[in-house]
Amino acid sequence: MQFKNSLLLLTALTAGSAVARAHGHERRHQHQARAVGDVVTAVIDGKVATWVNTYGGPTQAPAAPAATAAPAVQNDVVADASVTPLPTSTAVTTTTTSATTTSTAFPTGFGGQTQPTGTGDTFCGNQGIPYGSNIIQITEDDVSTYDYTITLDGSAVTEDYQVVFWNKCDSNDQLTGWYATTFPLTVTVSAGSTSYIAVDTNSQGGFVALPASQDIPRNSLGSILGFWGEFDFADSNNANWSGFDVSAIQAQNAGQTDFPGLKMEANGVVSSITTNLGAVDNAYTADEAAIGGIGGNLPSGPVALTATLGFSG
Ligand SMILES: *[C@@H]1O[C@H](CO)[C@@H](O)[C@H](O)[C@H]1NC(C)=O
C-alpha cells in the first residue's frame, strides 16, 4: 500500500522536476516515523535497493545555531583532514544496525537547512534538519531533478560495498563529522550495481566506500579511515562554488593504506587514488595536506559527480 503510494509520488516528482530543482530543500520527507537503524529495502524501477535509515526524524533535530557567518571567498574549497581536530569525546564503537523493516522508498526530498556558522576551515554549512537529512539516496530517474548528485558506480567491484556518508560538522557545528558512529546515510552498493545520492545545497561532507563485509575502519581516536571522497556543494562561504577531492591523508596518518581505490569525476575533472594507494591523480596525500584546491573546483551551478568504487586505474 505504502509502496504504491510512494511510486506515485516518485513519478509525480519526476514529472515536476523543475519544481523539485527550485525547491528541493523545501520538500518534506515522508518517513519521519521510521526508526533510526532500520534496514530498509524497496524495489524501485525494478531494482532492489537497500539502505540503513539513519534519518531520525524531527525529534532529533539539533537546535538551530544562532550565528550566521558573513560570506567570504576562500581559495580552499574543501577543508581537508589536515585540520583534523580531536573529537570532543573519543568514540571508537562502530555502528551496528539490526532492526529490519520493509518500507517504501527513498526519502522524497531533503529536510530543512541549518544556518551556516564559521568561516574558512571552521565553516559549517548545511547539515540538514533533522541532522543528516541533507544527504539522501535517490533513484536513477531522479538524478536529473537534483542540482548536486553523486553516482556511486560499483561496476568495478565484485563484492557488495557499503558507502557511509558524513557531514563535515556534527550537529553542534564542531568539526567532528568523520568521527560519526551514526551516519547521515549508509548505502549498500551491490557488486556490479550503481546507486544514486543527492546532496542539498551548502553541504560539506565525505564518504568512504569499502567492502560491506568489513567493519568501518577507524583510527585510535575513532576517525573513519579509508580513501575519503570529500564534497562541498554550493558553498555559501565560497560564492556558491563546489569542490570535491579524494584524500588519503587520514589513512596515511594512521599508517593504513590498504583500501580500495576511489575516483571522483565531474565536469571533466578527475580526482583519484587507486587501490592500496597506488597511483594518485589530483588527489590529497599527507604531503599535500597544507595545499588548498587539489581536486575539482567548480563555479556556481549544478554538479553531477560520479564516484567509481574500487578504482584500480
Ligand atoms: C548563492 O546562492 C544563494 C541561494 O541560491 C543565493 O541567494 C546567493 O545570491 C548566491 N550567492 C552568490 C555569491 O552567487
TrEMBL record:
<dbReference type="GO" id="GO:0019863">
    <property type="term" value="F:IgE binding"/>
</dbReference>
<feature type="signal peptide">
    <location>
        <begin position="1"/>
        <end position="22"/>
    </location>
</feature>
<dbReference type="Pfam" id="PF25312">
    <property type="entry name" value="Allergen_Asp_f_4"/>
</dbReference>
<dbReference type="InterPro" id="IPR038903">
    <property type="entry name" value="Allergen_Asp_f_4"/>
</dbReference>
<protein>
    <recommendedName>
        <fullName>Allergen</fullName>
    </recommendedName>
</protein>
<keyword id="KW-0732">Signal</keyword>
<dbReference type="GO" id="GO:0005576">
    <property type="term" value="C:extracellular region"/>
</dbReference>
